Model the fold of this input.
Amino acid sequence: MIKESSSDRLLKAIIYVLLTIFAIYCVIPFVTVISSSLSAESAILRDGYSIWPREFSLAAYNLIFKDDTIYRAYGVTIFVTMVGTALAMLVTCALAYPLSIRALKFKNGINFYIYFTMLFHGGLVANYLLISKYLGMRDSIWVLIIPALISPWNMFLMRNFFKSVDESLAESAKIDGANDIYIFYKIVLPISMPAIATVGLFYAMGFWNKWFEAMLFISDENKFPLQYLVMRIMNNADFANQLSAKISLPNYVVPTLSTRLATTVVTIGPIIFLYPFLQKYFVKGLMVGAVKG
Done:
């Protein structure tokens, strides 16, 4: 066992101190957001944002949770995130693994076709007509899931990770009589958990933050996702403040600033709680696509 010198211990202490300061520096903005969301609107306008709540108030959260609409939106977003991430990972892995095999015919052509979609897009009008008229998914919750099942960038990340897996594993399994599907599900996927967790987190973040598609294709309030509903709440709050200013209502202030902060806490909370469970896989997956890229 090597004994640490005094200089090594000093260097380690300095590193720990710097990391602690950096961690506090990263946490303070989030703590400020939470405390300010619990402050009265007048206190924020008068004193600005602070680490500790000033004139404690739940007006912003009461505005957000004033009826059960927010709970339905939460349910829609959770469903879209869970089902969408699972289906997206299934489709992405099913496409990425064959493209990682050197013996696949027309592999280069398929790769180019997928890469082409990253450079050129049909445009908003063509996309709207395709989804609403020809696919008939207007005002359906699946419009938030199906069009986003494949991300070319994520697919190439998974393909490059699959390419880094030793081919001798698949060859030895084929000698024992295993087919490609068995090799994929029983051998390749279990050892690809870092890549799956990393890309799955990317997909989950994308599905959780869906709002633009809801604005275009969904008119039923019961199917609004969380992010779109929050945006409507903020727009209504801004409109109410503008209206009160025009008609000169005394002492009438809609908590727009604190509501913005409260919506931040409401919308990013579940993702923050999810990250610690995926952290060990996420750290391992930082090098996804870096080998044999």
Observations:
- The CA atoms of residues 96 and 159 lie 4 Å apart.
- The radius of gyration is 25 Å.
- The chain has one domain: 58-287.
- Residues 289-293 have pLDDT under 50 and may be disordered.
